[in-house]
Write a structure and sequence with these properties.
13 strands, globular, 255 residues, 13-stranded antiparallel β-sheet, 2% helix, mainly beta
């Protein structure tokens, strides 16, 4: 049917501003909002577009997050509403939710009896092409998870802003500011303060230059990333610190 598409198998997640294929992102290193997942789903989904693609709907059923086989007998529901009021502006409302409690036989820490813990994540993605030279974007994320119905929810969330400048054809300068809050350690961001380990929050600044050659088939990308936290989360062993600088240059062939 016109505007209707069925996808079945393993596919990249709809959650987040960034995608798994790094060359399609403005920055090479993943931001914190996307870096803590999900990355992909296994299942089936339906996409339906109306009003010449200005409005779209997606719904599907999958085996949870980043798993080919599910870790229990329950499924996760995914959904998206996409809006494109103008050729320059795109808005995406995304959701994924379901019972993600691990009840497989190999898991010795699974809750006994009641294993109806739910995990929900929702996010908003906005992209706006201000002009041929300037593109901006934003991402807002909130998630929560319960081990079972009787426990309190562990929450996480954050926000990110994106700015890309293309002063000349073949060169783009991109900046990302992202903040990720996992103080309840729902996604495993561990920090140390006063000798006590617990959840933390982190802020990242990423600056990337992209040189595009041969019609976009070869990319040279120098990048520098500065991260900071109120707790010691960077490094290993006894050499933990509250901030970190990473610099790299990547060479990517796109075929």
């Amino acid at each position: 049917a016109k505007g209707l598409k069925l996808t079945a198998g393993q596919f990249g997640t709809h959650i987040g501003y960034e995608v798994v294929e790094s060359y399609q992102n403005a920055n090479y290193m993943l931001g914190y909002l996307f870096g803590f997942g999900p990355f992909y789903h296994t299942g089936a989904k339906l996409d339906y577009a109306i009003m010449d693609g200005k409005v779209g709907f997606m719904a599907g059923v999958v085996n949870g997050w980043d798993l080919q086989y599910d870790n229990n007998k329950n499924k996760t529901v995914i959904a998206q509403i996409s809006l494109k009021p103008t050729s320059a502006l795109s808005i995406f409302l995304n959701y994924a939710g379901g019972n993600e409690t691990n009840t497989t036989a190999a898991n010795t820490t699974a809750p006994v009896g009641d294993a109806k813990g739910m995990r929900h994540i929702g996010d908003v993605v906005v992209q706006y092409q201000v002009s041929k030279m300037i593109k901006v974007g934003a991402n807002f994320v909130y998630g929560e998870e319960k081990a079972n119905e009787a426990t309190a929810a562990q929450t996480w969330g954050g926000a990110a802003g994106y700015l890309s400048l293309t002063p000349i054809d073949g060169f783009t300068l991109s900046y990302r500011l992202d903040y990720f809050d996992d103080k309840k350690q729902a996604r495993g961001l561990l920090g140390v303060s006063g000798g006590v380990s617990n959840g933390a929050s982190v802020m990242g600044h990423t600056l990337t230059g992209t040189i595009s050659m041969y019609g976009g088939h070869f990319l040279i990308r120098p990048e520098v990333k500065y991260d900071s936290s109120e707790k010691e989360i960077f490094g290993s062993g006894t050499e933990l610190k509250k901030d970190n600088i990473t610099a790299l240059i990547s060479f990517t062939g796109v075929y």
